[in-house]
């Protein structure tokens, strides 16, 4: 195990012997898990909160990112005096299985060959990610979670927790998420995957050095994938307000295929910055796991069945400008929870920022999460 102080959190990694049985039938062993913890676990273990990150997130939820140097991705929600407070809670955030920030994934070494897995890494699901988190919590001595909290793909994991481990969690917070992907969601992901695989430098996923470092990765393809996905995280109103049809400031006006419009420059920056911290193969694997996710299908085609044995209470939040996972998706989950007899609260918040609103400044969201976590059952 490694440990590094980062502000008030601890960045750690652990190799667990496993085996971890994946939904595809493969037994994965050993299993590397990179994670961060904040706060102290109570003697009775009752104050543990698991935070689940989104597609391109990681375990650095509230401490500076080691690659970019930027603050953690949810410092608005996690920290002293925030709704999820290390003075009160023992907070755990793990890098998901298949990712590239220290957990087992395509860039990690296959013990059978001594070389990076690449595309030989087994197919993974959201439920596999949850099982990996449960292994980590066992290692940390956490039996029952006070809460699981997640937005977007993190919300998928949060929904999967009471369905997979109904006796291990007391409260669930699901923000801007869904119980399954629509055809449109899958279509956008496929555009991104094809962009990666069309890059000549992808080479069938075999672009790693012996130690797993990406020596000459398909950066152009991954950048395009990120650009396409990033559009879905925003709203038309937000884009219009921020960029409109504004042109880049130039001493000499030029036209053509340079970034003439500010929105073009913004998207290109998003793509370039992304490839510095993310692995292309991990992007393929995780987007596929999201597309496979269908919580109703896992329970005989009825979503309510996923929650019938859970004693947890639920809080769902959507945003009115989120067209990636619109409010109707959250309402469908609420209806299923009602049918299962589960206690649930739901609110649609107003924001101009689209799907990304859960990551941005939102006092209303903070109030909702704070009130829900402090409420007694």
From TrEMBL:
**Which of UniProt's keywords are assigned here?**
Acyltransferase, Amino-acid biosynthesis, Cytoplasm, Methionine biosynthesis, Transferase
EC number(s) for this protein? 2.3.1.31
Q: In which pathway does it act?
A: Amino-acid biosynthesis; L-methionine biosynthesis via de novo pathway; O-acetyl-L-homoserine from L-homoserine: step 1/1
Annotated active site residues, numbered on this chain, are 152, 322, 355
Residue intervals of the AB hydrolase-1 domain: 47-360
Q: List locations, semicolon-separated.
A: Cytoplasm
In terms of domain of life, where is this protein from? Bacteria
GO biological process per UniProt:
homoserine metabolic process; methionine biosynthetic process
Catalytic activity, reaction form: L-homoserine + acetyl-CoA = O-acetyl-L-homoserine + CoA
Q: Which GO terms describe its molecular function?
A: homoserine O-acetyltransferase activity
Task: Quote a single Gene Ontology cellular component term.
Answer: cytoplasm
InterPro entries hit by this protein:
AB_hydrolase_1, AB_hydrolase_fold, HAT_MetX-like
Which residues are recorded as binding substrate? Answer: 226, 356
What HAMAP family does this protein map onto? Answer: MetX_acyltransf (MF_00296)
Subunit architecture: Homodimer.
* Cited function: Transfers an acetyl group from acetyl-CoA to L-homoserine, forming acetyl-L-homoserine.
What protein family is recorded?
Answer: Belongs to the AB hydrolase superfamily. MetX family.
Q: What is this protein called?
A: Homoserine O-acetyltransferase
Organism, per UniProt? Sphingomonas aliaeris
Read off the lineage from the record: Bacteria, Pseudomonadati, Pseudomonadota, Alphaproteobacteria, Sphingomonadales
């Amino acid at each position: 195990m490694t440990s590094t102080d980062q502000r008030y959190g601890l960045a750690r990694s652990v190799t667990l012997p496993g085996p971890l049985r994946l939904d595809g039938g493969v037994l994965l062993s050993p299993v590397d898990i990179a994670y961060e913890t904040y706060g102290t676990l109570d003697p009775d273990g009752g104050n543990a909160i698991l935070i689940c990150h989104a597609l391109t997130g990681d375990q650095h939820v509230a401490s500076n990112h080691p690659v970019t140097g930027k603050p953690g991705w949810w410092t608005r929600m996690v920290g002293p005096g925030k709704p999820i407070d290390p003075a009160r809670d023992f907070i755990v955030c793990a890098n998901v299985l298949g990712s590239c920030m220290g957990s087992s994934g395509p860039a990690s070494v296959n013990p059978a060959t001594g070389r990076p897995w690449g595309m030989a890494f087994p197919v993974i699901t959201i439920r596999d990610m949850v099982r990996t988190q449960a292994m980590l919590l066992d290692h940390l001595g956490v039996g029952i979670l006070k809460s699981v909290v997640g937005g977007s793909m993190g919300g998928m994991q949060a929904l999967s927790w009471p369905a997979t481990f109904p006796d291990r969690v007391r409260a669930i917070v699901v923000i801007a998420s869904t119980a399954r992907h629509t055809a449109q969601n899958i279509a956008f992901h496929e555009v991104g995957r094809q962009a990666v695989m069309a890059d000549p430098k992808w080479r069938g996923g075999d672009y790693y050095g012996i130690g797993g470092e990406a020596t000459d990765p398909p950066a152009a393809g991954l950048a395009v994938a990120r650009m396409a996905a990033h559009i879905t995280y925003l709203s038309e109103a937000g884009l219009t307000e921020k960029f409109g049809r504004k042109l880049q400031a130039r001493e000499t006006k030029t036209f053509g295929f340079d970034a003439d419009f500010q929105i073009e420059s913004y998207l290109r920056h998003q793509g370039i910055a992304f490839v510095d911290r993310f692995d292309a193969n991990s992007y393929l694997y995780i987007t596929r796991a999201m597309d496979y996710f269908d919580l109703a299908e896992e329970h005989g085609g009825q979503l309510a069945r996923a929650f019938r044995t859970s004693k947890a209470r639920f809080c769902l939040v959507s945003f009115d400008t989120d067209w990636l996972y619109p409010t109707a998706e959250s309402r469908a989950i609420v209806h299923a929870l009602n049918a299962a007899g589960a206690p649930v609260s739901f609110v649609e918040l107003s924001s101009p920022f689209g799907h990304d609103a859960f990551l941005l400044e939102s006092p209303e969201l903070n109030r909702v999460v704070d009130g829900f976590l402090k409420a007694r059952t």
